[in-house]
Amino acid sequence: METELIALLGLPAITVSLLFLFGRTVGKYGAVVLVMQQFFCSLCIVAWIARAVFLQNSTFFFELGRWFGVIYPIKWSFLLDPLSVGMIIIIEVIGFCVIVFAIEYLYNDPHFNRFLILLCLFVFCMLLLVTSGNFIQFLIGWEGVGIVSYLLVNFWFSRLEANRSAIKAVIFNRVGDVGLVLAIVVFCILFKTFEFSALFGNLVLFERVFFLNFLNLSCEVSGFSVLAGMLLLAAAGKSAQIGLHAWLPDAMEGPTPVSALLHSATMVTAGIFLLLRFSPLFIFTPFVMEVSVILGGLTAFCSALFAVFQVDIKKIIAFSTCSQLGFMLVSFGCYQPLLTFFHLLTHAFFKALLFLAAGVIIHALQNEQDIRRMGGLIHYMPLTFAAMLVGNLALTGFPFLSGFYSKEFILLLNYTLVHKSVFIFGLALSISASVLTVLYSVKLLFRVFLSKAFKGYRSHLVTVQDGGFFSTFSLTVLSTFSIFSGFLTLPFFSNFPFLIFSGRWAGIFDHYLLDSFSWLEYEMVSVVFKFLFFTFFVLCLLVYWITERIQRRNSVYLNILAVYNSIALGRVFKRLFLLISNQIVFSHLYRFITFQVYKMGYLYMLYTLDRGVFEHIGPLRIFSFFFNLSSLFYYGLQNKKLISFLFVFIFFPLALFILGIKECDFSSGTVLHGFLIATVLIYFEFVLFYLIAEVEWTNFRTYSEELPVLKGLNDDN
Fold first, then answer.
1. Which residues neighbour 350 within 8 Å (Cβ) at sequence distance 6 or greater?
2. Looking at the 3D structure of the chain, how many domains does it have?
3. Which label site among 26, 106, 196, 409 has the fewest CB atoms less than 10 Å from its CB?
4. CA neighbor of 360 nearest in space, from 381, 336, 343
């Protein structure tokens, strides 16, 4: 298995090297052939690894040698378990579909080879992240993913908005990076190692209590709670949770294939993967789990609300991604990492499908992304409509599609835990987010495809058609996974709801379920959830159809619109629309924080400290010191007193230094003592020199008035 893993990691690295060195020589066609061969070989290796891990129920942990060691030895270690192999399948399958799609979408771009290099480099970093066996390798993959994401979002670097979005993504991800670095420090303190294998032992033996003293208030904090909190901060930054979510919608300035791979299935799920990797640790931190439920619920609801009021097709899907990441965090906070990974798996395929379908629409409409300038495209793009329909139905939890199985389980799990107030809050936000998900999904379908008239520029209709072979192939593959991935992988997750972890972790959470939950109630609630969102989906379609019919009768529509605008309620809703669609609250919050940081850095750090205190103590004082030295030296030369100056300022300090060295007894180990004596003597000599310089400066000024060479120096000072 070591050979297979080395080949899996080596293939994208070799491809990046070859394209970087010989990309101009092989051209676009040669680059495409090379990358397609790399992905085809990688898929074959992934199939072999998946057979060994899933069918044989095996876990592989191996080391390839020592890397370096500072405090604790760091080795090249890798871990292949169902979690990492599942992520590898997502990366390779969606990466392959994105590459095939990009052949048609970006082939005419002059920087197409650079796009292929960055995409293969991203795949390598992501594979390194999910297969890492220690924290140092994980950090390298984590940072590599962030750097390549910046380069891909800023792929069209001549666009100002792309520059701003890429920088914004880096700044927001820095918060998560700080959390990860602090988590590494705490993990090293607790476990005395960087290896993940420490997680699979007896964690109780490593439990420590930290004593904190702040403002004379002492408290005890569990080491596991500190570590879990830092990991949650890292996950919140990378996975765009509420408060740190603003970078993800703005990252849609990059090419659509980048959004399909990075911002739906791989990079944004790296934070959730981090929590899943450390899931045994979170059993001991119930407070952090409750915070996860609250944070995930708020993210799911607020992001779905923002998506309802958006008009940019890619930003709607981006906010939808934030909402689904909130669902994953809610299920993780309910002590169900297995279910979290199930939803991560199903979500990856239908969200990548939605992004690629949106890319086909944008490409056909000559880069038009406003859904208000679309409509009636079902007659021009039937295949794209079918792909978009499958993706939206899976997103809303339509019965028996992939998203239905995982989302239904999350809502059922929240329902079973209603005896705790935190989980009641999570259930309310989850159901509200699901309803809003249906609303913006229907809005997207109706505004783009099902409305009668095309509301955009008539010149765009000339080029409106379904994509070619490559884009159709990618949409077909992802549509198949969006339909069947939930049903086919359900047996691997069929131990819900009575199994949390394998082995000795099983049954830890059973008392929450069995005390207030029966199979009859489970079946009843399951039936309700099966048809609740389906019914709401149909009702939303009906409402949009009625609205469309009313708009076609101009007289009735104009009368209703006049009445609506004449009352205060219309103005309130307009302001509410602007408030939510532009995220005014978060925008003002970010601007306030940024202004305060800039103000502190500009006024206090720059002028008060750097150009104030430090400048006068450091550079200006040193300059004055050496200027006086050189001036006195020149004064001595003019008065033929060079020998006395050399004796006072060179030979005498050197003699004192030698005297200090003589005090060193190298055999008895008192070297440090002797050097300290020499340093003190030299220090007092320089103090003496400075005093002499200040006394002699008056005589020098008088003498310099007689020398034309020194008049300029005298005038400046």
1. 390, 391, 394, 395, 401, 402, 403, 478, 481, 482
2. 2
3. 26
4. 381
Q: Which two tokens stand for residue 182?
A: 């602090």
Query: Based on the domain organization, do 251 and 365 belong to the same domain?
Result: yes
What kind and span of H or E run contains 612? none
Looking at the structure, do residues 529 and 642 belong to the same domain, yes or no?
no
Q: Is there a single domain that holds both residue 526 and residue 658?
A: no
Handedness of CA 668, 672, 675, 680 (dihedral sign): negative
- How many beta carbons lie within 10 A of that of residue 616, not counting itself? 11
| pTM for the whole structure | 0.78
Domain final residue, candidates 521, 542, 563:
542
Q: Which of 508, 542, 576 is the last residue of a domain?
A: 542
How many other CB atoms are there within 10 angstroms of residue 604's CB atom? 12
Residue 187: HSE in the Cβ half-sphere, 13 Å Cα cutoff = 23
Identify the three-state secondary structure at position 66: strand
Each residue of 402-458: pLDDT tens digit? 888 888 777 777 766 666 777 788 888 888 888 889 888 888 988 888 887 787 777
Identify the band that residue 460 occupies on the pLDDT scale cut at 50, 70 and 90.
confident
Nearest to 399 by CA among 340, 323, 486, 322: 486
Tell me, yes or no, whether 582 lies in a domain.
no
Q: How far apart are CA 209 and CA 585, in angstroms?
A: 38
Q: Does some domain include residue 387?
A: yes
Answer whether residue 574 is part of any domain: no
Same domain, 274 and 389: yes
Residue 312 token pair: 């940019």
Task: Quote the CA–CA distance of 538 and 556 in Å, as a whole number.
Answer: 25
For residues 269 and 386, state if they share a domain: yes
* Residues 6 or more apart whose Cβ sits within 8 Å of residue 388: 354, 357, 358, 444, 445, 448, 449
Helices 313-333 and 421-445 sit at what angle, rounded to 10 degrees? Answer: 160
Torsion of the alpha carbons at 132, 137, 141 and 144, rounded to the nearest 10:
-170
Asked, as a colleague might, if the bond just before 491 is cis with ω within 30 of 0, I would say no
The secondary element (H helix, E strand) that includes residue 519 is helix 519-552
Residues 31 and 155 grouped into a single domain: yes
Shared-domain flag, residues 508 and 640:
no
The answer to whether the CB of 419 falls within 8 A of the CB of 507 is no
Answer yes or no: are the C-beta atoms of 246 and 315 closer than 8 Å. Answer: no
What range does the domain containing 682 cover? 635-716
**Distance from first CA to last CA of the chain, Å, rounded?**
75
pLDDT in tens, 90-106: 999 999 999 999 998 88
Does residue 190 belong to any structural domain of this protein?
yes
